[in-house]
Design a protein that fits this description.
Layout (H helix, E strand, L loop, with lengths): L2 H4 L8 H16 L4 E8 L5 H10 L3 E9 L3 H4 L1 H9 L1
C-alpha cells in the first residue's frame, strides 16, 4: 500500500520510473498498433484532461466514452464495452 504512491513520478523523481514513463509515452505517440481507450464520467484515474492528453499524444487511438463510470469501467458498462471490442 505504501510502495505504489512512492513510485508515482513527480517532477522527475524517482528517476527510473520517470524515465520508463517518458519512454513509454514516446512509444505510444509513434506506435502504429491500434489502441482503444474506454473512459467514463466522472472518471477515476483518467479524467477529461487525461483523455485529452491521450487523444493528443497516442497515435492510432480510438477513445470511447462509456457514459457514467469511475474506476472499474468494465463493471460500469460491460455490455457496451463488449460490443465495442467486438466491433
Amino acid at each position: 500500500m505504501r510502495r505504489w504512491p512512492c513510485e508515482i513520478p513527480i517532477d522527475g523523481s524517482p528517476k527510473d520510473v520517470h524515465d520508463a514513463v517518458s519512454a513509454y509515452s514516446r512509444w505510444l505517440g509513434q506506435s502504429d498498433i491500434p489502441m482503444i481507450l474506454f473512459y467514463g464520467h466522472p472518471g477515476g484515474l483518467i479524467r477529461e484532461d487525461g483523455v485529452a492528453w491521450c487523444r493528443n499524444t497516442i497515435a492510432n487511438l480510438e477513445a470511447v466514452d462509456i457514459g457514467a463510470g469511475i474506476h472499474f469501467v468494465q463493471e460500469d458498462n460491460p455490455h457496451f464495452i463488449g460490443k465495442e471490442l467486438s466491433r
